[in-house]
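Bug report

Summary: structure tokens for RND family efflux transporter MFP subunit differ between web form and batch submission.
Environment: batch mode, default settings.
Steps: 1) Submit the sequence below via batch. 2) Compare with the web form result.

Sequence submitted:
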Amino acid sequence: MRISTLSLFIGVLILSACGKAPPPQVEKAPPFVKTVKVATGGAADVGLSGTVRARVESPLAFQVGGRIARRAVDAGERVAAGQALFQLDTHDFEQGVRAAAADLAAADAALATAEADLLRARQLQQRNYTSEQAIERFELARREAHTRHEAAAARLVQARNALGYARLQAPQAGVLVDVVGEPGQVVAVGQQVALLAQTGERELEVHFPASVTPPAEGLALLGDGTTRPLALRETAGAVERQGRTLRARYTVHGTQDGLVLGAVLRARFRTATVAEGEFVVPLGALNERGEGARVWRVRDGAVSSVPVGVQSTDGEMARVRGALADGDTVVALGTHLLTEGMKVRELAR
């Protein structure tokens, strides 16, 4: 009796549980996506980063080799023209000066002796005590002594110059961007020990993609929100082998305040006109899923992929060619989360 009652009670519970309606499912709202309208025609803007450099950067090196005895500066210091930067050990150079001075003294004595011999020979010739051939030999000895004297004097000048070259001085006022020489280091002739950014104009060094011709003008964006106009000064003669980029130097017009050497600034350039059938989209709009580049077009609240061919890119934008129309809206960010026909809500860029 008890077993039957218990079985009946369990059955009622099971039937009650099966009879409950499932909880209502809440439909998720379509996600927000940032969108942008594709641009065509006119000129395309290129955004790139550039490095602030000095107009004149002088690698500093000794004109003689030796061991560095003293370093008087550090990287980042501002130096004046003629200021001493490094000093080599001068012991050998001083010995060279003394040896050259001794050679010159010996040459002086030899020249004086040759001139005295020639004078006596001429006096004897006037009395017919010597021949013309003897006079010629004395004149030859005098010319030889004179030549040796000039060579010894030149060697002394060289030895003194070498002693002076043992001190490396700043050729112009500026800032030492880099200092690599250390006391005790043995350096060769011409081996760079420092890099001096001379005081004067500042420039922005920009590396363009190989397919982009550096424009004649641009605009530098400083960290405080101000801008500086740029003017192209020089372009490298060849594309760099490693990065396949073209280096260009732009003169920064206006005040030099805020242009810290080595700082990286954003710059905007107006490049050539976009060709017919090409469109400009943000780099973030490109999506690659193993089937080639594509963008996601938004129409009637849903997305669809559009295959495109990438013509060129820069730091922010890309020029593409595909089945797009002027004014089409594409997703600018987060394209890796999209699926075909997915509903979205636009968050205009």
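Above is the batch result. After comparison, the two runs are identical; trailing whitespace caused the diff. The chain is about 25% helix and 40% strand. The first strand starts at residue 32 and ends at 37.
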